[in-house]
Amino acid sequence: MLRELFLGFIRVHILYHASLAPVYGLELIRELEDHGYHVSPGTMYPILSKLEADGLLISEKINVEGKIRKYYSLTKEGCAILEEAKVKVKELALEIFEER
């Protein structure tokens, strides 16, 4: 149950970082570790594939020092979903942390 909850947060993180600049899987794994998430490649790459299949990300293969690396960028639809998620996250955070 907890894993499913955090997977939602991870997806929002991915969309956010892909909105800033093209990102690749290992880079995202490291970024998420900085936030306390421990995501294996076996979890990250299926998430990226699903976000791409859903039309939220688009990928481009780039040769980096002789290795092919797949970079992901946010699509127009992904940008719209991210903006909606930001509103929902802000609303939830304000409610959760509201001083009573």
From TrEMBL:
Q: Which residues form the Transcription regulator PadR N-terminal domain?
A: 14-83
Q: Which domain of life is it from?
A: Bacteria
Q: Which residues form a coiled coil?
A: none
User: What PANTHER family does this protein map onto?
Assistant: PADR-FAMILY TRANSCRIPTIONAL REGULATOR, TRANSCRIPTIONAL REGULATOR RV3488
* Name the record gives this protein: PadR family transcriptional regulator
Native organism is Desulforamulus aquiferis
